[in-house]
């Protein structure tokens, strides 16, 4: 997320939360050496400004901070996380 907010597209695998955070404007996914090479070439063409805006629009800092505070409050209230 930090890279995208700085305007740096990412090249990553599609594991964990990454499919939820990376989109066509912010990066590419790969599973093989060939896909890595293709993705590496493609991210060079992505617009830094569009990458930054896309990430910021989808994950605004105020909304993210509020979600963390709500999560911490639930944990402090005794909620067990999955």
Automatic annotation (TrEMBL):
It comes from the Bacteria. SUPFAM superfamilies: UDP-Glycosyltransferase/glycogen phosphorylase. This is Glycosyl transferase family 1 domain-containing protein. It comes from Rhizobium loti.
